[in-house]
Please model this.
Amino acid sequence: MAKHKHNPDEEYDGPSKSQLKRDSTALQDLGRELAELGKERLARVPIDEDLRDAVKDYQRFTAHEARRRQLQYIGRLMRNVDPEPIRAALDAFKGVSAVETARMHRLENLRARLIEDEKALHDIAEAYPGADLQQIRVLRRNAIKEKEAGKPPRAFRELFRVLRELETGGADDEAEGLDGGIEEEA
Model:
């Protein structure tokens, strides 16, 4: 058996087969995460149309083998795109990014302040001039009633959704000071 000696003059041939396989599997896993997104979130991920169509096809398929093959195809398409913006969008959906987590905490604190004291509406009106204060007031009232009656927190969640939409409407910087030092409720 002849041993292969390393020749320093030989050129680097690129990544090993094992590394290529790991990279391919990682892209396929990222593609699987994309395929598990709902329509609204998928629309917000920065991907090209071919990849978006392939993901939509995967979501339509029900047969296991068809989904497996489509996932491989998605993995192949992923080789031609930069995965970092996709990872960043998926992390934001999962609430992994520190910025997204801080924003969620700020909105939760604002909602808690609003539930405790209707005067917080004044802060919301100043920060978000286009806010529908009547809708927010009604949601606040309904959220309080739900809590007192022990009902599911539909209005409570809807209030959060409305506040989040206001903030993403371009007033992110103005909302920084709205949490007012309220501590998070458990």
Remarks:
- The CA atoms of residues 144 and 150 lie 10 Å apart.
- The two ends are 68 Å apart (CA to CA).
